Model the fold of this input.
Amino acid sequence: MFALNLALIGFTTAESYGNFVLVFALSLLAYGAQNAITLMPLNVLLPTRFGQSRRMTLQMLSTLDAAVLIVASIVVAVLGIWTGLPLILCGLGGLLSLTSGAREFHRALFLTNNKPYGLLRLDITAFTTAIVITLVLSNVRPLEDAVLIGLIVGNLTSLAVFRQATHCSLLRLPQMARRYAPYWRKSRWALFGAAVTEARFRLYVFVIEFARGSAALGVIHAGRVLVNPVALLAFAWARASRPILAKQLAATHKRAALETLAVGVVGLTLVGVVYVALLNAVMPYLIAFVPDLGGQEFLKYLPLWSAFAVISVPAICIGVYFQANHRYQVVAISTLASVLLSGLLLGGLFFGAPLKWTIYCLVIGEIVQLLALLYILLPELISARRVQA
Done:
């Protein structure tokens, strides 16, 4: 995905890239709902289930997942029409949400079942197919269309080759929904948390689109794409670590869970700092390849996006710790505080604030959330140190 974004940045106009960013942001809204309703429960519940209970839990979650994705893909297409996107991009956005969500469920299942090589094969097949289809179609379709079609075909191909048994049955959806009801009390906070998390990371996309247009969105988002590997690494750690943390906390091994968290926070933050430092060092020499995306103005945004990327890592890691401990409310409320503040500040874009104001708002929001999570985590850290002493 990172490589495809770079191709779009280098070979399309800012407006075309802005349209692609909007489509992708809409599809990620569907992932947020899916993550809260089915993927997080899958990571947390399945490792503690065995035999028939495990099979029934998997069937319940996979059936609900299919229903969620169908509804979410329709919502994405409708929202695309509402924002004024071309109809072809709206339809592709809906299909991308559906197929990417299906692949995400199998990715989560591979991780939960401790089959990282299955996950690797699934991803390699999807990305390789996407690149091939994009290269073929780029000669006859606009590049943003070709990329979206490539991603959809890549998702379908990987699922056809490496699909796992999930026992999904939409005909039994009412029964599965009743079985899921006891988990809803916790999952509803996870869903609310997913909604505000998406707002935390995507709200600026819609604000810029309405306040300044697709061209401005394409210019400023290009900088975020370059630092996105930091967040991608953090979210990959989150997917891999959530089942581990859940097992440790279920076994009341809180000290071990906190050590896992510490390794993630320190390690990922250091990797992020090294990456953005190298990126900022070489970017002045690469700026010539993206003349359509703001030239030197684009370069000025990169240090701010770098700060945002590094600051977001600890909050992502600590949030996963609370999710693994079924404390979804903590993550949801802290994220809500971040979104409310940054969203209020983003309103300045409608009143003449410069584009870089967007990133200042996001950085402030990230700092607020991190401080809130650290404040809630602090008693557990103190308790663990006392036990150790």
The mean pLDDT is 83.
